[in-house]
Every structure is written in structure tokens, then in C-alpha cells.
Design brief:
By secondary structure, the chain is mainly alpha-helical. The chain is built from 16 helices and no strands. It folds into two domains: 127 residues, no CATH class; 186 residues, Hypothetical protein af1432 (Orthogonal Bundle), CATH 1.10.3210.10. The longest helix is centred in the middle third of the chain and has 54 residues.
């Protein structure tokens, strides 16, 4: 039983640690080989026939020709060792060798077929993957055109969404997220202010303090943004940044008044990135604030406006002088080639204190 259970237990533990590990595929397959060897050496050889069928699942799950070839060669070698062992022990003779010959021939033909099938499956999979990536890139380009329209409404906030996206990516990495998660947050950050396309210019461009009615109109942009993005399925959670980036940890934000961890982590990250860029940028109604003041605001609003972990990550990035380089990279033309378009649509009206909007 140990030969059966140990590989299964190890692979399950491995899967829980890193479900996307390429080495896990090899671990599972060679765990299968151990079980196959055990069955072949301890039972009647015809029981090994049942192991031909799991090869089909290897093809479907991993579509890795090299893996199938390695497994095939190893399995044939195991059978050769079994034949030699059986011959020397007298269990295998010329008169009763037909079953063994059929078994080896079946394994050879099965592995050859599985190898060819895996190569064909992988080729089809790669073509499908390329098509999906092309569709995603076209979708991002379309979104970029819409967002650039918003960007044209206010030259004072030009580049804001691009910088917020870059800061959000840096924060996600600082918080220990994977590259894929960080890239997703970066894309979501690009669109966080898309709802301001629906805010009247008279409110968006006002140089003085907003009236209560005007501020109520401004506070509608998260809901407008969520409605714009709700039918776009190219990326899960795309509307989260637009909808919730003005929520606060103390529940005094908008539009839903969510509190603490009710606010999606993506939105908590974008909130800090958004506020940092708002304070660190020149606006029509004020100049940028000093870095000492920004650090004070980030620290002072931990747990009220900002998620403390995210705010501390931003403070750490500032002390590491990592954000200037991040902002400069966000304008790199390579972003265009990657489909990560520059979306800028922000105009932040700071009311009671600079970190609040």
C-alpha cells in the first residue's frame, strides 16, 4: 500500500503548495510509474494492462510530448527488467511468453500513439492560446481608445491612470502576489477612473472647491465606471477597481460604504496607489505635496482610509526610492506592444485632507 499511497500523498502536498508547478506534472506521472512498477513486480503481469488507459489522461492534462516519451521509455525499461527477472526465476518460458510479448507490444504502440496525440494536442492548444491572447490584446486596445478619450478631457491629470496602474503593480509585488496577479491588478488600475467619462466638464474642470451638489455628482463616477465595465469579460474583476477604489476601511467611503475586508483587496491596493499619485501630482487648484507630508498622510490614515498592510507597503516602496523608476517605466512604449494601454482619466478633488477624496 505504501507504493500506492506515498506518491499520492506527496503529490497532493505538492499541489497545495504550488498548483501551477510544472514539476508537479512530472511528480504525478512518475508517481504513476512507481505504482506501475510495483504492480508489475508483485502481481500477474496482465494486471499491468490497466495502466495503458491513464496515459490518455496524461495526454489530455499535460499535452507534453517529452513527458510522454520519458514515461514510455521508463515503462518499457521496467518491463524489460521484469522479463529478465521472470526468465531467471523460471516464471517466464518460451511456452508461456505470449502474454508478455503482447503486453510489451501494446505498451510500445500505446506510447507511440500517445506521444503523437500529445504533440497534435499541444499544437492545437498553442494555436488556441494564441487566438485567446490576440482577442485579449484587441480588447485592451479597444478599452485603451475609450480611456484615451477620457484622458483628453483634462490635461492636468494626464498620465494619472497609467501611474496608478504602475504603482498598483509595484504594491501587488511588494505584498507577495504572483506576476500574473500583479499584471491583472495593473490592468484593472488602468481603468479605475473610467467612470469620469460620464462626469460633466463643469464639475470635472472646476478649479475651486466643489459644492455639495457637485461633489455628489463627482461621487457617481465609481458607479458609472462599474456600469461601463460590467459587460467586459476579458479579465475577471475588471470593474472592481473602478467601483470600489473610493471605499474606506472605516466604512466612510463611497459608493457602497464598505468597511474593512468587505472591500476587495484589488480596490484597497488601487486606493493607496490612487491617493499617492493624487498627492504627488500638480493639480489645477494646488501644487504637489512634499514627500514628507505624503508619508505622514499615508501613516496617519492607516486603518481609517487605507488598508494598513497596503499603506505600509507603499511607505516601504517610497523609502526604497522604487516609485520614481516605476512611474517612468509606466510610460515605456513596450507597454503599448504588450497591450497595456495608457488610460488616464482622473481628477481628484481633495476635500478635508489631502489623502481623502
Amino acid at each position: 500500500m505504501a507504493f500506492w499511497c506515498i506518491p499520492v500523498i506527496l503529490c497532493n502536498l505538492w499541489y497545495r503548495r504550488d498548483a501551477n508547478s510544472n514539476k508537479l506534472c512530472y511528480g504525478i506521472v512518475y508517481g504513476y510509474l512507481i505504482s506501475y512498477t510495483f504492480t508489475l513486480m508483485t502481481a500477474h503481469s496482465y494486471l499491468a494492462y490497466v495502466y495503458i488507459f491513464p496515459l490518455l489522461s496524461v495526454v489530455i492534462l499535460y499535452h507534453d510530448g517529452n513527458l510522454v516519451a520519458q514515461l514510455g521509455i521508463a515503462t518499457i525499461l521496467v518491463n524489460i527488467v521484469y522479463i529478465i527477472r521472470a526468465a531467471f526465476s523460471g516464471l517466464l518460458t518460451v511456452s508461456n511468453s505470449n502474454l508478455t510479448e503482447i503486453q510489451v507490444a501494446s505498451l510500445v504502440t500505446s506510447f507511440i500513439g500517445c506521444y503523437l496525440a500529445s504533440r497534435l494536442f499541444d499544437e492545437l492548444y498553442q494555436k488556441h492560446l494564441a487566438s485567446v491572447k490576440h482577442i485579449q490584446q484587441v480588447s485592451l486596445e479597444t478599452i485603451g481608445v475609450i480611456a484615451n478619450t477620457v484622458d483628453a478631457k483634462d490635461s492636468y491629470t494626464e498620465g494619472h491612470s497609467r501611474r496608478v496602474a504602475a504603482y498598483s503593480y509595484a504594491l501587488a509585488k511588494k505584498l507577495g502576489m504572483s506576476e500574473e496577479e500583479a499584471q491583472n491588478i495593473k490592468t484593472i488600475g488602468l481603468l479605475h477612473d473610467i467612470g469620469k467619462i460620464g462626469i460633466p466638464d463643469s464639475v470635472l474642470h472646476k478649479s475651486g472647491k466643489l459644492t455639495d451638489d457637485e461633489y455628489s455628482i463627482m461621487k457617481m463616477h465609481p458607479t458609472i465606471g462599474a456600469n461601463i465595465l460590467k459587460d467586459i469579460t476579458v479579465l475577471d474583476g475588471l470593474l472592481v477597481g473602478a467601483h470600489y477604489h473610493h471605499e474606506r476601511m472605516d466604512g466612510k467611503g463611497y459608493p457602497e460604504g464598505l468597511k474593512g475586508e468587505e472591500i476587495p483587496l484589488i480596490a484597497r491596493i488601487i486606493c493607496v496607489a490612487d491617493c499617492f499619485d493624487a498627492m504627488n501630482s500638480n493639480r489645477i487648484y494646488r501644487s504637489r505635496f512634499s514627500m514628507d507630508y505624503i508619508l505622514h498622510e499615508l501613516k496617519n490614515n492607516e486603518g481609517t482610509q487605507f488598508d494598513p498592510k497596503v499603506a505600509e507597503a507603499m511607505i516601504a516602496l517610497i523609502h526604497e526610492n522604487a516609485l520614481q523608476e516605476t512611474a517612468e517605466r509606466s510610460t515605456d512604449k513596450e507597454d503599448v506592444l504588450k497591450g497595456e494601454r495608457c488610460l488616464s482619466a482622473g481628477y481628484h478633488r481633495i476635500q478635508k485632507y489631502p489623502a481623502s477624496k
